[in-house]
Give the backbone structure.
Amino acid sequence: MTAIAVTIAGSDSGGGAGIQADLKTFSALGVYGASVIAALTAQNTRGVTGIRDVPADFVTAQIDAVFSDLLVGAVKIGMLARTPVIKAVADGLIRWNQKAIVLDPVMVATSGDRLLAPDAVDILKRALISRALVITPNLPEAAALLDAPIARNETEMRRQAERLLALGARAVLMKGGHDSGPESVDLLVDATGETRFAATRVATKNTHGTGCTLSSAIAAGLAKGLVLGDAVRAAKAYVTAAIAAADKLAIGTGHGPVHHFYSWW
């Protein structure tokens, strides 16, 4: 049976993040990718110059078209800019009884541009966090969700993950890529304990789309039947290699993308 994953996220016109990064990741990992576009952005490697919302009823139409026909193994949720769209996505996931959900609470782009409206944060927490199998915030996103300072070490990362579990999340992957030090450490925390995933930090400015790529790689693993811990481990290895190969590409003049097809090109 063909493994299928769906990304529900925003489009990145520069191709490095969002829907485009998700579909590249699915393809690189041997998973058929479908998509529900929830927002449009005008952006490149230097930043975001515009955002246009997709009407909530058309987000619903895309969800119903995809899930009524394709046997979906996992769902990745990325950029959802506005409250009506978040509600439409939550309702659609309930309607189609989706369980293997990876929620990447995209709030700010690599360039620093804000992608989630401030008034949508509360509905994101109430409507989607409790429905996700795992949420994958980076350190600034976790801090924003909790209205707390950014975690400075693994102890604080663990405490913030536990607070996010209290909001209803079944598992939290705290991504330490924004931290400093020789290692990039992610912590997967759930009700049974925690697992530490560490990789040597790669010195490059070309990190656009890393969060999107990691979350979609986890979804790809779930779609292929991996349990969550194994899916995270495989995704971490894939993203680390994609970052390490990023400088082989020459894309734009700002924060370039990771190399999704490093094994193929």
The longest strand covers residues 32-44. The CA atoms of residues 2 and 50 lie 36 Å apart. The first helix runs from residue 18 to 28. Strands lie at 4-12, 32-44, 47-53, 74-77, 101-103, 134-135, 171-174, 183-190, 193-200.
